[in-house]
Amino acid sequence: MTGKNACELWDSGWYRDARHSPSAFYNARPADEVSLLVIHNISLPAGQFGLPHIEALFTGCLDCHAHPSFIELKGLEVSAHFLIRRDGELVQFVSCDDRAWHAGVSSFEGRTNCNDFSLGIELEGTDGSLYTDAQYACLETLTGDMMAKYPEINLGRITGHSDIAPGRKTDPGPGFDWQRYISGVESISRAEEI
To answer: Do residues 107 and 114 make contact, with C-beta atoms less than 8 angstroms apart?
Structure first.
């Protein structure tokens, strides 16, 4: 958390400390509930970082002829609420009050269709790559601010894409340090309470 109150940080589900790049790939949540945070990873092309293709994919502007692997993405309508780039830049595509299309076929604690009640954060990376200090710092701050704004999200309701879609998805992968991340969020929360 940044020391700002929720009113200063959020405007209709848009995080003021993010660069906004609105996606058309979202819809209304079936209920007014935000109670789960899902961590993902993405790189386009696979294993290449710092390119504009992720943002182009989430905003429907990807040139599917720019790389041979993009052909399979033609017509794909997918989005996440946030992307955290390797340098820590934070980009938001969908209001947190709306349903981004990030989880696909999924289940958490026996409940299906996780998009209905979750927020999705994409980290620029791969399953086996280590994430950067800048990404952890941004992710920890954003998570703390999400937990303040959406109190149904707590440390027990943060999961990886692999956990809600086992056998289908593997991200954020073994390169993601869950202990470091959770400890960082806890430290931020304790500092805010002082």
So the answer is: yes
The beta strand positions in 43-117, using DSSP E, are 82-84, 90-92, 98-100, 107-108, 111-112
Catalytic hit among 8, 77, 122, 186: 122
Per-residue pLDDT tens over the stretch 147-194: 999 999 999 999 999 999 999 999 999 999 999 999 999 998 777 765
Cα separation, 192 vs 87, in Å, equals 25
Q: Is 24 exposed, middle or buried (0-12, 13-18, 19+ CB in 10 A)?
A: exposed
122 is catalytic: yes
Distance between CA atoms of 38 and 53, rounded to whole angstroms? 21
- For 96, the token pair is 């947190």
Collapsing DSSP to helix, strand or coil, 123 comes out as strand
21-70 confidence digits (pLDDT tens): 999 999 999 999 999 999 999 999 999 999 999 999 999 999 999 999 99
pLDDT computed for residue 1 by the predictor: 44
Contact 125, 49 (CB under 8 A): yes
